[in-house]
Amino acid sequence: MKHLVRILCLTLSIVAGCQPKDQARIIIAKAIQAHGGAAYDNKRIEFDFRKFHLVLDQQNGRFRYQRTYRDSTGVLIEEVLTNDGLARTQNGQRQVLDSAQTSRYSQAVNSIAYFVLLPKKLSDPAVLADYAGESRIEGQQYHKVRVRFQAEGGGSHYQDTFFYWFNQQTHTMDYLAYSEGGPRFRKAINPQIVGGIRFQDYINYRGNPNDTLSVGQYDRLFESHQLPELSRIEQKNIRVIPLP
User: Fold this and answer.
1) pLDDT exceeding 70 applies to what percent of the chain?
2) The CATH number of the domain where 65 resides is what?
3) Whole-prediction pTM
């Protein structure tokens, strides 16, 4: 019977008999397809974000995220995060890092990569996703999904809780919210297709850190214009290159 319910869910999309985790997985799978699907596989993605140049390689379950920039004194910094850990150089010289520095730099690199690779990153094995209901934002109907992470394989986000809003018609990921580092709500803007992948910029809205309201309810605050704009998240000079 459970197998039959799973088939019905996959065939008929979201129906009343589906479990929340099944619903969430189906919604995420449709979103990944809408944003590029197999186009993400075995690719190098390069782009500029603020003062940083990023190179994201993903191939056969392995990843290599490289962030390059110059600090305030002109020193060239290169940080490379892989499945095996982090390496950091200054003007080509390898640095010896303590655990706090390794964690800080790893999180900084991974956070940029994570948001650029959404919603593909929601297919990672460490993701724990639950269906959180329907929502209406700016005249469109959305499915809301809550995402948490297993400690093992969850990276720097494993203690975080995210909410995502997926358009019921286009299946695109149009909004997201999170609380770690300060409550935020993001609206996707300026979609562009490069190499078969949909990339999006975001308007970043600030929540009230003293408010105990879950960021899962930030769609309501956004609709009532209670979230002030904080910043813009923009990727420039995007290139997608197949890896051999």
Assistant:
1) 88
2) 2.50.20
3) 0.87
